[in-house]
Structures are given as structure tokens and as C-alpha cells.
Amino acid sequence: MHTPDLFAPPLDHAKRVAELRQALHHHAHLYHVLDAPSLPDAEYDRLFKELQALEAAHPELITPDSPTQRVGGRPLDKFAPVRHAMPMLSIRTETDTTPAGAENFDARIRRELGLTDTDPPVPYVAEPKFDGLAMSLRYEHGVLVQAATRGDGETGEEVTQNIRTIGQIPLRLPDAAPAVLEVRGEVYMRRDDFETLNERQRQKIAAGVKGEKTFVNPRNAAAGAVRQLDPAIAAQRPLSFFAYGLGEVTPAESGGPTFATHFEMLQNLKSWGFPVSELVKQGQGASELVAYYNAIGTQRDSLGFDIDGVVYKVDSLALQRQLGFVTREPRWAVAHKFPAQEMLTTVLAIDVQVGRTGKLTPVAKLAPVFVGGVTVTNATLHNEDEARRKDVRVGDTVIVRRAGDVIPEVVSVVLPSDDASCGSPTIAASERGAMFTMPKTCPVCGSAAVREEGEADYRCTGGLFCSAQRTQALAHFASRQAMDLDGFGDEYIERFAQFGWLTTVADFYQLKDKPLVGFVIREEPFTYKDGDTKTKLVRVQEDLAAKLVASVEESRTRPLRRVIFGLGIRHVGEATAKDLARFFGSLTELAQATAEVLLLIDNLGEVTAKSLLSFFSQEHNKEVLSDLLRELSPLPPMQTERVVSLSFLKLLSTLAIKKVGTKSQKLVVEAFPTPHALLEAGKRNTLQSGSVESRIFEVLSSENWQKALAQTDRLGISWSDDSEVVDGHSSLLAGKTIVITGTLDKVSRDRAKELAELAGAKTAGSVSRKTDLVVAGPGAGSKLADAQKFGIEVIDEAEYLKRLSSAGVFND
Ligand code: 5U1
């Protein structure tokens, strides 16, 4: 007879515990694996706490697969060795980064299988090669009982406690899963999790916490977390997992699963709750492997995690068995590597480069290193703060990264105390050079270099007196998007400038009168057949001289927007140049614009207005402009695309008169549809003194506004009472609070803020729960960490500019 256990917890407790576990497993899977949260965090926490309380009251109900057991084990002295039930294989690596890498594999498979050219293509599965560390997860009767590293393939280390902390790894499997199941896959760290972790580490180091360090890359951080003896610390290192294979599994004859293909096996792993990458694809023959390699290669930088190549596997499990192994490597699989994106090299010097607008950029000069498919000798350090934060010094061994088309950058310095697996540093910490400081004068012209309040950049104050700024300003004017002066490369421009033929952009138009033919561009060593070496002078040939002159002549009729863009005014990109051309119709009118008028232009804010006013107020620029106007063919009046009307309401919104809100502005426009109507009424003394209208009248009567209105009249611009313009933001960004942090490359931080406002968003200086969006460039620090802490969306500069452009305020 069954005797009830008097000490057993009441049945309803056991039932509730089971219910809670099932619900928590289900929601954790939706959250971590399917990325489709279905329960508010607070509700999940409530269920979790209820389970914890029940387990605390009834410890006999605790099981190793309980969600509460993910964290909480004791620190270990060392990891126990684990002999794998089935060896963990390694994979043959193909380092030829051309299509031949895939073609050779297919040819080998066909040869091994005895296929001829007339046989059909071999079916394969292609997968990303995740850059993490291999892991074997053993489940018995649906419960995770052991997680082990690969070790030497035969024996690994038991890291179950740490692996339990990974939310994506199921602790319990559905009943359909086999009684014994070993899942092999990769533990890795997502890039955003890595950035947050490193930011936290930096803060600890800054606070003086002993023994803390930052991690070199996500793989090192993941490996460090898995091999962390204290599971409580491991739990703070956010890890992820992708499954890609099997170890021991209950055999078919004992009721285990049967799969015909690798792909089918992966689908089953997915149905049992394991994360399987969406990027895994089936394909036929070499051509589809090559296409996969190329497709994943182009996506590589935008994935949320690092990969270092792709893996090709014969899909049919029967063919896999037929192909077998060579030593520890299966013949049916190969890893096809991508070019390395990160490499070690040495810093030879830190130079400071001067940009077109005078921005000083520290650049690390590097011992040449092949990275991301090209030889890199320079890497940007962005600005002084960034160079000092990374503490890059001459002589240091550094990790250089080149991802896609992005400018190469120094990721970090490898100090002697860092992980030895990163390579051996060349110098000891005590012998390092001095910390970088930005020079206080321009390294090219010697003018003062200043850093304005709130700005990350130092700027040379030399303007066009600075030859570096001058050459780049000339090159910008000649560029394809501006005046398109074909044939004028940087070297020619620099030489003509050095020789005194090019000082301002107007000088291009005088070159036709200069003895261009035979002009010496450079000296080059030349070796004769007999081995004798002489210096050869490279001169401008007749046909090139003709081409240069012709392209300058042709540029006299370029549209106004390109001339304005070509002037290289700070914050005036192609889109703003186009808006200015549409509004003013001529350079002469643009040069006379006041702040009042500029602020009436769509998509133009105070930062750009200030920059335009400053440019056109400088004597030197006035002279260049008048020279240039003499050269450019009088442009036919622009008929199309001119701005023909402005909203009076928009004008009122730019006035920012105290206590005159949108409502009063609308009432004013209803009574006076144009500024002229209001001015007329004011002049006739019909406005009530102290009223909103009379205050507006006073402002519009000021000298600046009179000048502004005279200009809009001259330009033939009429006034509308359109009330949609002011409230009409409909973009993704409208109404959002945005924080911009880190270095931006394409636009200045001020301009980025201005664009946010033009898109109807607000910008803030610090991140709080009220922040909607954080735009983070390289070097983003605690603000990025805060954003991640609060779960706020973080985007990079490229994505931000994309959103601004769909909001219609940016298309430079
Ligand atoms: N995606 C993937 N990575 N990876 C690594 N599949 C895969 N398979 C491996 C390894 C070491 O080994 C099997 C071919 C045994």
C-alpha cells in the first residue's frame, strides 16, 4: 500500500513549483532564444521570486533544471576534467579567402565520393563560423546535467555552473527530446554586451578596484567568463549560444531520433529550444557555397556578433558517414575563413592631421599590417580624449581593426599584463613612451589650436593661411560632388598650391594662363636596363594640361548648389547647399543673408546659420567670392525648384518671443496672414499696446528683420498662413529625446543635435529613463553603458543619418 510521506511538501506547493518552472522556462525561451518577449519583465520577476520563495521554504523541491539554479553555485578551486562521451572534433580550416576556398572543398568532396562532372551538385549546409568557444551540453532525461569545454577534444573542463547562467541555454527540454542528448555549439558574447561589459570594467578600474581589466575582444571576454571560477561573476558576463552539432545521442534502436540530413537535425534542435542561427542555409554545389561566403562576408560587420568565416558541411548524414574522418577532423566539413579584421602591430608615431575645416585628428602611424584585406599603415585615434582614453603611445603593441569600408582604428593597447594569447608586446609597461597630448599649435602652419567649450575636437585657427586646410579646401572644391574638376588629384593640387598657382578656389580659373605643360609634379627614381639608377622628373604632359584646362572651363556653368557646396563652409553639406540654392538663387543673395532669413529655411538651424554668417563675414572669403563670381558664367535664373513661399507661422516660431506660444501664434496668423499685413497695421497704430501682435510688430520693425523681409521680397517669396509646417513633423524621430555620445565622423556633434531638432526631436546631455534613443560613436563611455542599463535603443552614426534622411532633414 502506498504510505504518504509525512514530510513531503503539500501537493499544491509541488504543483505550483512545477507550474512556475514551466512558465518561466517558456518565457525565458521566448525572450532569450526567439527574441520575442511575451511577458513584462516585472511579471517575470514576480513569478521568479514566487518560485524562489517556495524553494526556500521547501528545499527538497529544488531541482538542477529549476530557473532559480542558473546562478548561485559556490566558487570553485578548479574545474573538474570531463571525458567526452564522443570526442569533440575540430574542423579543417581553409585560409584561401578567394572563391577557390569553397571550390577546392567541393572538388575534394566530389573526388572522395567518386562523382564525375555529369553527376548533380552535392547538397551542403553553410553556417557562420562563430568567434567564441566550443561547448558540449549534455542532457539526460531532458535536464542539463553537464557543460564541458572542448579541451583537447577527448577531455574538457566541467563548466556547468557557469553555463547555467546563460539564459539562451535551456535547462530543461521538452518531452520530445531524446533521453540522452549532447548538443555541441559555440558560446559567444554579443558585440553590444561586450561593449557594456568593457564600459563597466573601465568604471571599476577608474574607481580603483584591484585586479580588474578590460577585455580585448568578445571572444576573450567570453572565454574569460566561461572559465570564471566564481559563477556569480560569470553570471554578470552576458553570454550567448548557437547550436551546430551533436555528440552522444540515444541511438535510434533505443528510441532515439533519426535524421537524414544535418539541416533536419538543426531544425530539431531548434524545436527543442536551442538557438540555431537564422543564417544557416542549405545550398547545392560550389557556386552556392561561394555565393554564401560572399553574402555573409558583406553582412559580417552588421551582425550583432563576431564571426571569422563560414563553415560548409555535407548535408546528408549518410554521405558524412561515408566520408569519415582524418585524425580529429571530419572530411565532410571545412571552415572557410574571412580576412582577419583585427591584427596586432606596433605604433611607430602619433601624427596630428589637419582637416579641411581645421579639425586636428591624432593618427597612429603603424608598422604595416595586413588586416581586413588591405595593408594598413595609419589608424585614426579620433581626438585627444579618445587617444588618451585608449592610452595609445609610441612603441605600443596595439590591436588594429578594419571592418568593411570603415577607417581603420586602434581598438586597444596590448599591455604586458594582458592575456598572453594576444601576442607578445614589444616593450615593458615601465618603458612606455609619454601619454599623447594634443599640440597647442597647428603642426602645419603653427597657428593656435583651440578646443571650444563642449567640443571634442581641437581646431587650427589658421583658416586658409594654413596650407593643410587650403589644399583640402581646394581639393574639396575640385571634388566630383562639387565642381567636378576632372584630373585634379590631391598631388597636383598640392603641387600647384606649393608653387603659388593655387591659393584660393578662384585661382583654378587662372591656370589656363600658366605654363602647365612641362610643370614638374614629382621626382621618381628610375632604373635603366644596365641597373643604373637615376632620378626621373614626372612632368605635366600636353594632353593632361589640356584636360585640366578643359575641365576648369566646363565647370563655369555648374549649378549653384554645387558651387555653394564646393565653398566648403562648415556644416554645409550637399543637402543644405541645395536648400540654400533653392532659397537664394544666387551667391550674391546668399552672401547677404541675415540670421533671421537663414533660420526661415527648412532644415537649417542655428549651428549652420552661425557658420554661414561667419563664413560670409570674413574679408578674405568676400574677396574669394567676388573673384569667383567674375569667373563663373552668370547662371540662368533658376526657374524650377525655387522656394516661392514661406509660412508666416514658421517665422513667428523662430522669434521665440516670451510667453507667445503656438496657440497665440496661430491666432496672429489668422488675423494677419503675412508679416506685411501686421507691419501695416502696426504702422497705422491699430495694434493694442502690449498685445502679442504689438510685441511681434516691434521685433519685425527691427533693422535686422526689415533687412530680412526686404530680402525675401526681393527674392519674390510670398507668405502663406500654412499652419502645418510648424507642427508637421511625422518622422521616426519626432517627439523623441535623443542623447548623442562618442565621436561622430560625418557630421559634427553640434550639427547632429541641430538635425535632431530639425526632425522634431529634443536632445539631452545625459541618459535617463526618459531618453528614447542614444546615438553612440566610437569612444562612447558611461552614457552608452547607461543606455544599455535602461534598455534604451542605441544606434550608430550611419543609422542616425539614415533616419534623419528619411525624416527629410539630411541627405549629405
Ligand atoms: N558553425 C559551425 N562552427 N563549427 C565549428 N559548425 C561547426 N562545426 C564544427 C566546429 C568545430 O565542427 C564540426 C564540423 C565537427
Supply database-style keywords:
OB fold (Dihydrolipoamide Acetyltransferase, E2P), 6 domains, about 800 residues, about 20% strand, binds ligand 5U1, D-amino Acid Aminotransferase, Chain A, domain 1, seven-stranded antiparallel β-sheet, 29 helices, five-stranded mixed β-sheet, globular, alpha+beta, Helix Hairpins
Sum this structure up briefly.
The chain is of the alpha+beta class. It has 6 domains: 13-69, Orthogonal Bundle (Helix Hairpins); 93-337, 2-Layer Sandwich (D-amino Acid Aminotransferase, Chain A, domain 1); 342-418, Nucleic acid-binding proteins (OB fold (Dihydrolipoamide Acetyltransferase, E2P)); 467-631, 5' to 3' exonuclease, C-terminal subdomain (DNA polymerase, domain 1), CATH 1.10.150; 644-720, DNA polymerase, domain 1; 737-806, BRCT domain (Rossmann fold, 3-Layer(aba) Sandwich), CATH 3.40.50.10190.
What's the structural blueprint in terms of helices and strands?
Blueprint: H1 11-33, H2 41-57, E1 81-83, E2 93-94, H3 100-112, E3 123-130, E4 133-140, E5 143-149, E6 155-157, H4 160-164, E7 180-188, H5 191-206, H6 218-226, H7 231-235, E8 240-249, H8 262-271, E9 281-284, H9 285-299, E10 307-314, H10 317-323, E11 325-326, E12 329-330, E13 333-337, E14 342-354, E15 359-371, E16 374-380, H11 384-390, E17 397-401, E18 409-413, E19 449-451, E20 458-460, H12 467-478, H13 490-498, E21 520-527, E22 533-539, H14 542-554, H15 560-566, H16 574-584, H17 587-592, H18 595-598, H19 606-617, H20 619-631, E23 645-647, H21 648-655, H22 662-671, H23 675-683, H24 692-700, H25 703-714, E24 718-720, H26 724-727, E25 737-741, H27 749-758, E26 762-764, E27 773-776, H28 782-790, E28 793-795, H29 797-806
Parallel strand pairs: 2-13, 23-24, 25-26, 25-27, 27-28
Antiparallel strand pairs: 1-6, 3-9, 3-10, 4-5, 4-7, 7-8, 10-13, 11-12, 14-15, 14-17, 15-16, 15-20, 17-18, 19-20, 21-22
The structure holds ligand 5U1.
Ligand 5U1 is lined by residues 89-91, 127, 129, 134, 244-245, 311, 330, 333.
